[in-house]
């Protein structure tokens, strides 16, 4: 695999107007050492990356100038041009951030002049009247507020102008959107501009320091008037169904944020918002500015979606944790919950359902914040037995199998938060046996296991109270979950739940005792049911458990492999009459304990949980057991055993002598498999083995060539590289001899197919176009006999590619002599005579049944491939 080239950074080139360019030329000095010369060289470059280098030199150059340099016309003009450059760059151009970072380090005595120049340039931007340039100006306002001192100061100086521009731009963009009805491309762009404009308005309120005081709150203040104007616009957007729901929802956030910023005193904000959400606003008791800006929310018929987005703003924009809203925040929290419950029975539109689920999850987060800030009066209203929690649980149960993944995810967040809420309400008390948790656990366990939401809720419950309390109710839960793993649709949920459970259980047991005896209890709970399924479960159960659950278990607890091997070996011995313990595992007519053993070892080796193959054969399983698996009557046991020998997490792991002997043993007895799927798996696994041999032989070859005096790494090889290489050559030669011997006259189709496919894999893996290979194919394959084989016609497609790969790279010729009969449509079986020696010729004689091939010599077709 080639090395992936690092993607080069793309930076758009900065440019300036002709007037600024002439200004730089007029101020540039002859030596080219002043700021004007530096900027001139920068803007004349055609490479943005190189321009970054020059931009970074600006501040170091200014640091050499004394305070009198502030009055220098050259520096003043350059600061003005720099402000223009910053505002001309696009939001995503890296040069913009580099320039902002550099200007943040300006010497302090330059700041007043720099702020003045930047303010002037920003004012020019705000004066634009081109509607399709508004987005660029809005982006500049946004970037000025993001870690850019000069920009933030300029916005502060022009705050009323900025607010007025935002108000004007939002009105004009909406009007333009109506004019472009039907032009979806333009409308999409305008909607995006509108959304960004609302977000920038919110950013200003949150980040500009002027909003922290009260001077701007005078009714005749331009800033106050612009704020009221923006609030009125957001109120209209909230109820405008012609706008995207994202724009409406963001408007709901903005409305609550502006009310929070403008309304005084803050202790009365919760009551005002509650009255808006409950449609109970007393128009005589609210401020005039609020009535004029939000009249439709006070007196009109507010749609369900508008109320929903106001709930979202209430939960997202108010400070629930610091107690600044006083006791009334608790009433607002409860009122918001009841409004959401009402909306949940009314809303049917999928997108609004998604909004509702997110907002309800957000409500549970806010409730946790209030409870964590010591709010005793809420504990009775938010404990597990309260009506609110009951309604929330009902919502979870109703939507936990919703078709939308995102909505199901929100129900998980809600359920997890509900458990946390109850824990906070009973803080200081004994959680278990807590009646709410016990009742909840029992109700979940009574549900059928085919309900997918059950797995999610049990997983959250385990994380909250621990698995030991759930096992105390029903110890057979692990077995029950494993039983349903025959259903593919439930497998991911079941395996994730089991993983959560066994991890939690192990952590709990380790914390309870310093002794090692806890591991036996853990194995009995989680590993023994697994082994039972591997031995006695149906085919689907075994397959899914091996693919999904077993790797997770071994990854978390690699030391459990020895326990698995011990139990399964005992079961195997019991079946053979050597021992009588653990008789329930295994079956004579199925894969049984031996199949389970091989599957566990295969997964463990493939995921790197075995230190080395040699240690495995010496310490875990005997060679006799491996051979027993290689010739087992169940095909999957044979495949798993072969996979154990062929697969490894390290592609360069040395193939041991024992493994090579067992592979040879396997090939002797398994070429004649009648199942196409089994033949395919055998060929695939053997190809993996050949690739390991090829890659590990390269390492061995390099070690031999370097003639290193250092002792080879133990995990690589325990003998001299040349010895291992010779063993490889002998093994491959023996394999090829066995495969060619299997191509005897009268051999079955399955045998021939397997042998030829494996030979083709050998030719493919060890073939190097330059003719250089560490294990030369011609050192492996050498035979002299003429093989006379009988093939059906369609087998030519299997045979020809193999021999083309095998012989052509060695500059041999392949002659195909084909005799065709005029008018003959159906060909009979034919004789194929192959003379197989290095650099020899292959003759293929296609003879028709009952006729002599010599009678078709006039129609001879000869193809020569070189």
TrEMBL record:
<dbReference type="InterPro" id="IPR016024">
    <property type="entry name" value="ARM-type_fold"/>
</dbReference>
<dbReference type="Pfam" id="PF25150">
    <property type="entry name" value="TPR_Trm732"/>
</dbReference>
<dbReference type="GO" id="GO:0030488">
    <property type="term" value="P:tRNA methylation"/>
</dbReference>
<feature type="transmembrane region" description="Helical">
    <location>
        <begin position="829"/>
        <end position="849"/>
    </location>
</feature>
<dbReference type="InterPro" id="IPR056843">
    <property type="entry name" value="THADA-like_TPR"/>
</dbReference>
<keyword id="KW-1133">Transmembrane helix</keyword>
<feature type="domain" description="tRNA (32-2'-O)-methyltransferase regulator THADA-like TPR repeats region">
    <location>
        <begin position="522"/>
        <end position="765"/>
    </location>
</feature>
<keyword id="KW-0472">Membrane</keyword>
<protein>
    <submittedName>
        <fullName>THADA armadillo repeat containing</fullName>
    </submittedName>
</protein>
<dbReference type="GO" id="GO:0005829">
    <property type="term" value="C:cytosol"/>
</dbReference>
<dbReference type="InterPro" id="IPR051954">
    <property type="entry name" value="tRNA_methyltransferase_THADA"/>
</dbReference>
<keyword id="KW-0812">Transmembrane</keyword>
